[in-house]
Amino acid sequence: MFRLLRLIEQYFEPVIIVTSLGLVITLLFADVVARFAFQTSVFWAGEVASFAFVYMIYFGISYAIREKRHLRVTMLVEMAPPLVQRALLALAEVVFLVYSVIVCWLGVVITTNAIDRGQILSATQWPTAFLYAAIIFSGALCVLRLLYSLWMIVRHGETVLSSPSGGAA
Fold first, then answer.
1. What does the alpha-carbon distance between residue 155 and residue 147 come to, in Å, rounded to a whole number?
2. Pairwise CA distance, residues 95 & 164, whole Å
3. For residue 15, which phi and psi values (nearest 5 degrees)?
4. Distance (Å) of CA 53 to CA 18, 21, 45
């Protein structure tokens, strides 16, 4: 059971990101070929590609948090003593955590409004709530990732400013 959870934790976002990128490239390429070679269009390709792009971006945010590659300026933190580094990193994670909770909550509000209004995408006829759900899911993942990061800073004194693979944050 724990091995399955570990596999999901390790590969969930990368699978969504890579699959979404593959869809975007394939669908847009097919639409371009259809337009120039056959003077027609794959009418739903742009909409599905946009849908996949949204999921790729939102899940990329939580993946960046997991890999400690989210955008931050660390010059002053790196010059501080270890105890101050911990405090500054914890403060930054708390601010990002509050932001992520707000984004997740607003995602719930937007998705609920879309469901209540019965909004659908024009080409595919899919409910727009499926599109907006990316905000909720990735926001919740961001919250979980940030809580874990905050736990590692507070409990274990982690002050790593780069990813485990050695790249700069």
1. 12
2. 23
3. -65, -45
4. 11, 7, 12
How far apart, in whole angstroms, are the C-alpha atoms of residue 53 and residue 13?
13
Q: With beta carbons less than 8 A apart as the criterion, state whether 114 and 127 touch.
A: yes
- Within 8 A by CB and 6+ apart from 130, the residues are 51
Tell me what pLDDT residue 150 has. Answer: 92
159: pLDDT strictly greater than 90: no
Which of these ranges, 101-105, 108-112, 149-153, has the smallest mean pLDDT? 149-153
In the chain, where the domains are located: 2-156
Q: Give CA–CA dist 83/7, Å, rounded.
A: 34
Cα 111 from chain centroid?
A: 17
The pTM of the full predicted model, rounded to 2 decimals, is 0.81
Task: Go through 112-134 and write b for each residue having 16 or more CB atoms within 10 A of its CB, e for each that does not.
Answer: eebeeeeeebeeeeebbbebbbb
CA-to-CA dists, residue 156 to 148, 150, 151, angstroms: 11, 10, 7
Contact criterion met (CB below 8 Å) for 20 and 53: yes
Residue owning tokens 């790593």: 160
For the stretch 125-148, pLDDT in tens is 999 999 999 999 999 999 999 999
Three-state DSSP class for residue 120: strand
